[in-house]
Amino acid sequence: MKRSILLILALILMLAAASAMSSNEAARFVGVQHYYLYTGETVEEPIVKIANGEDGYWVVPVVSGNTPATFFALDSSSGELEETRATNSKLFRSADLLREYLLLKKGVGANPQVDWPIISDRVSSFETISRKFSDEQFQINIISSSVSDSGINSDILELNSMLSAMIQKCNAISAGINESLSFESNFITSPDTKEFNSLKNKFGDSLDLMIELKTDKEEYVSKVEQLRQKIPGLDLEANEKSYLDNLAKPPEEIVSITGYSQDAMNLKGSIDTIYSNVNARNSSQLDEFELRLKRDMAYNAINLDNERLKDQTDSKLSSLRQAAATILSEDNKSYWKNGEKLQKFEDEWRSTERNFENGKYDLAISAAEKSITYAISVYNDGFFDSGDDPLISTDLLIQVAGGLGILLILIFAYSNRDKLSGMLKQGNEEEVEISKWDRP
After folding, report:
1. pTM of the model
2. DSSP code at position 254
3. Tens digits of residue pLDDT in 394-424
4. Gap between the Cα atoms of 35 and 296, Å rounded
5. What is the maximum alpha-carbon separation in the chain?
């Protein structure tokens, strides 16, 4: 019994896996199976599913140049296209953010002059700086215990406080980078719409501390210089003064804080720009998605088989485009019995084409429906004669008639050639004038 249950569960899982949509199938659904794209646009195959609640979606970007014009979200389990605007808003924003973040990171990685600040190496770097600041506290306390100058001791108390604050920030930065790296891994491999703002928040805390640390370091160095200027005035031997001066010097490792801070400012600015762009274009991407659905509907109304058209013309006409090609062909157009409906059909068909080309897909769909109605009437009313397809066109009839006219003229001229010859001869004799000097 238990074995049977396990087999049934395995079968269910296999069927579920078989019915699930792959990322490639999602991309083909958008780029190949439908008419969503404009000329020059491409689709990108999504690299991961995006979670929204309990559902997972393949969110396919439609890219114009380097910018996503819109997205199409397909349920990864059922393959159904998501059309709810509120749900799409969250999915589009998350997909856009992920795409832009990966492009940013790829661009930074390709630029040797720019360093990415959220990496594990920086964790150890700030841990090292923290230890150096702790060592510095020990050294300046030696200065305090070596002299009885109240001004110097006051300076050292302030420096101790500054060092403690910087040690705390360094430790927070190291912990923050580790947390950011963990979040980044989940964000890239298992994005979730509920975590849309987390990238900015998680990275932001560590980046802000790096930026602040540069200012703290500069204030500390300035305060140390003030202390060092007081040491030469102490009543001590020269070698003792030199020793205290060396103790007061800031650790060399803190020089790197300036570069780390600049890297942090660059990344923070880039992430802020990404969020700003993603939020700014979300509404237009949603509008564009809805427009692309109508574009596909309009294309289908024009080019795909129409059941009403097929049913009411005994499948002689199947699509609107084929109906236009048949009804308005040179061989047929002049012979349809219902001239009024023919003109209306042509007008609506031209309107359908024009509106589709101009992106007015609602109007194109409406005109297509009217065109089909008129096409059915024109076709079913038939031709002027038996309703069979004309064997010859109007142009051919005109050519034949012209040829017959010329033939009749030639036959008439041949039958009356003697009379015509006499008339021409008499006419010539009357018209010739003889000059005076030619007379005998």
Report:
1. 0.79
2. G
3. 443 445 345 445 545 554 454 554 544 444 3
4. 5
5. 163
